[in-house]
Amino acid sequence: MDNFKKAFAKRLLDIKAIKLQPNDPFTWASGWKSPFYCDNRKTLSYPDLRSFVKQGLTHAVITHFPEANAVAGVATGAIAQGALVADELALPFCYVRSKPKDHGMGNLIEGTLPEKAKVVVVEDLISTGGSSLKAVEALREAGFEVVGMVASYTYGFPVAAEAFDAAGVKLVTLTDYENVVAIAEETGYIQKEDIETLHVWRKDPANWRK
């Protein structure tokens, strides 16, 4: 799996789905300043990489959550990946909105799953884990059993690990912060002196300022 994580990290960097700018930080929607930006949705534009991600997530489900009999994607970033995985596994699929639709039926969960289904959740990116775990809560409240979550990438923030532990949700990811930084250094994408900046940021991203 480590070789897969490194290979995927390299491909994300190659298509600029991940950008590292220690000296020119991004501003996230949360207002956090960050030297790191990830947009896994870009993988959907590259057929070979899209298939690579689909197979990786599918393998993760089969290996870690073989009891799953339904798939849920987290809107909006993981709707496509979740549908691809569900199709590969020939399982029912739904997706979970961040908030109920403000018209029509007012749905929070879009789609129909079997009663008391054992659901594996597909996510594209884990930062604090807040939105991902809101989807888990919605599925549980609807009467489904969430057996775990698979995701393309995690920043590995301590706050996320604590949140997943508290919610009793096992998380499996295709790659992560450590492998991305390692490949970025190996390929000369970032300089060695920038790595400490990235590590300091990850310890306390909410309060980091360049």
Give the key terms.
single chain, six-stranded mixed sheet, 10 strands, 22% strand, globular
Can you describe what's shown?
This protein has 210 residues and is α/β, with parallel strands linked by helices. It has a six-stranded mixed beta sheet, sandwiched between helices. The chain has a two-stranded antiparallel sheet with strand order 1-4. A two-stranded antiparallel sheet has the order 2-3. The chain has seven helices and ten strands. It starts with a helix and ends in a 7-residue tail after the last helix. Helix 1 (2-14) crosses helix 6 (177-186) and helix 2 (47-64) crosses helix 3. It is globular, with a radius of gyration of 17 Å. It is 41% helix and 22% strand. Helix 3 links the parallel strand 5 and strand 6. The longest helix is centred in the first third of the chain and has 18 residues, at 47-64.
Helix percentage? 40-55%
Structural Rg: 17 Å
Structural class determined from secondary elements: alpha/beta
Number of strands: 10
Distance between the termini: 34 Å
* Secondary-structure element series: HEEEEHEHEEEHEHEHH
Biggest sheet: strands, sense, closure?
6 strands, mixed
Strand content: 15-25%
Global outline: globular
> How confident overall, as mean pLDDT?
93
Poorly predicted spans? none
